[in-house]
Design a protein that fits this description.
With about 120 residues, the protein is an all-beta fold. The protein is built from no helices and 13 strands.
């Protein structure tokens, strides 16, 4: 059975200069999910990572996403969100191992759980 995970990070904007509190009324929420956590390390089997960016519960269009992985190959290192606030990349690998993917939005990073790439034929 494949497992989908969801991680989110809230970015609360500038600190209030009077009280030093973050203004979370203008918070951007960054959610990251993957369609599976285990795949075959054959260079073809892939995991799709999806990020969704919202602000005040509304989708953020045009947000720049930087993608980084601890191993394997990403389909793109940078994407932008569409009108629904979402964007995706795929991760493949020819080498077995456990890798993570991080999506960065406005300096806020959300990192996935470890994705297992099992040896081909195992």
């Amino acid at each position: 059975m494949e497992k989908t995970f969801h991680l989110q990070q809230i970015h609360c904007g500038r600190a209030d200069q009077t009280h030093g509190h973050r203004n979370c009324r203008t918070a951007r929420k960054v959610s990251l999910s993957a369609d599976k956590t285990s795949v075959t390390a054959d260079g073809t089997d892939s995991v799709t990572f999806s990020v969704k960016v919202t602000k005040d519960d509304a989708p953020v269009s045009g947000a720049a996403i930087s993608w980084v992985t601890s191993g394997g190959v990403l389909s793109s290192e940078s994407t932008s969100t569409g009108s629904s606030g979402g964007s995706t990349v795929k991760l493949t690998s020819e080498e077995a191992g456990e890798f993570t993917v991080t999506a960065m939005v406005d300096g806020v990073g959300v990192t996935s759980e470890k994705i297992t790439f099992a040896p081909a034929g195992a």
